[in-house]
Amino acid sequence: MAETDHKTTRAGLRLHCFQGIPERLLDVSFRDLWQHLEGPSIFDIPGRDARPLLVSVLLHGNEDTGWTAVQNVLRRHLGAGIPLARRMLLLVGNIAAAKDNVRTLDNQTDYNRAWPGTRYPEAAESALMREVVEVVAAERPFASIDIHNNTGNNPHYACVNRLDENGLHLARLFSRTVVYFTRPVGVQSAAMSKVCPAVTVECGVPGNSAAAVHAAEFIEAALSLAAFPEHPVPGHDIDLLQTAVIMRVPPDASFSYDGSDADFRFLEDIDLMNFSELEPGTRLGRLGGNKTRRLTVVPGGDFDIVPESYIAYDDGAITLAERAIPAMLTRDPRAVRLDCLGYLMHRIDRTGKRSETT
Ligand SMILES: [Zn+2]
After folding, report:
1. How far is the CA of 356 from the centre of ligand 1 (A)?
2. CA of 290 to the centre of ligand 1 (A)
3. How far is the CA of 11 from the centre of ligand 1 (A)?
């Protein structure tokens, strides 16, 4: 397929740019994209409104819902000769990791930690993402959507990195649950929110066709939005949450979910607590081994808090010491090692202040 202009980033990772998208790609599984594409690629797909919607998929190679959703949308339109309501810039991200069905390859920087604001500005992936922002910003995008999956039992929810009304309107097209976060840094939606309204959407676990249908409906809704409403999102239309702390297992500590001895013996079904309001004293697991290890608890937001005070260790039980709403608690050891055990959140109001009791 014919490529339009492209540059090579300093460390050799190249962004491939195409006009349009070949229809044969619409039947290719995410794991086979490497057979058709040479690397991370942007497709410029025309629509009736020339201001584009950026849609990014597969920044994490094993998170297939975004790609399947885009295939659904494009098949419906291109297959039937019906133009998109709005032009789409489609970024297909980490196809090398997709080939192996993993989030990120061991020799790569995470494609969703490498955007401007990243802690790894020297990485080849960071140069690539700077180039993406430059290419996309030049087209004056209408909005940006980054589509992800996660590993635990989580409802579908949207994330924003700014509390501006247009971003919240966009988020609300996906879900009434909206999480505001400022850390981790280097994520797509934080970088793009400096250019246009931008959201990350979390579509539950990978490989679920209902999730792809939901994400496809969201893409269609965003493409069809002619302009953002003038009025603010009504308060009763949105459940706004902010991450207070991020919980990690120290790299040299062991953990288990099946009760077998380890420094941290987490509850087998720990992810079932995600997005429920938990009281102090709620148990996350028990300490094992020599019972001296502690979770690494770091701030995840702008609250005036002492992160370590969120978790208590009484009589070997690992318990919550503050009212909080967990998210992304996972039973996937690889996710724990690569990212975190999970987050603890509070409800906030539109100004970012903690609201009511949680
Ligand atoms: Zn992801």
Report:
1. 30
2. 34
3. 24
Tokens 């009281």 appear where? 279
- Cβ atoms of 61 and 98 closer than 8 Å: yes
End-to-end CA distance of the chain: 53
CA 14–ligand 1 middle distance (angstroms): 21
Residues 64 and 205 in one domain: yes
Whether residues 204 and 341 fall in one domain: no
Instruction: Let me know whether 209 and 291 are in one domain.
Output: no
| 165-223 per-position pLDDT tens digit | 999 999 999 999 999 998 889 999 999 999 999 999 999 999 999 999 999 999 999 99
Pairing of β 143-148 and β 198-202: parallel
Å from CA of 169 to ligand 1 middle: 22
Q: How far is the CA of 201 from the centre of ligand 1 (A)?
A: 9
Are both 61 and 205 inside the same structural domain?
yes
Residues 328 and 200 in one domain: no
DSSP count for the chain of H helices, then E strands: 7, 17
Asked if 76 and 59 sit in the same domain, the reply is yes
Would 6 be classed as within a structural domain?
Answer: no
Q: Domain tally for the chain?
A: 2
- Alpha carbon of 205 to ligand 1 centroid (Å): 10
CA-closest candidate to residue 141, choices 178, 194, 182, 92: 194
Question: Cis peptide before 83, with omega less than 30 degrees from 0?
Answer: no
Q: 317: CA distance to ligand 1 center in Å?
A: 31
Domain interval for residue 32: 16-237
For residues 191 and 285, membership in a common domain is answered with no
pTM of the entire predicted model: 0.91
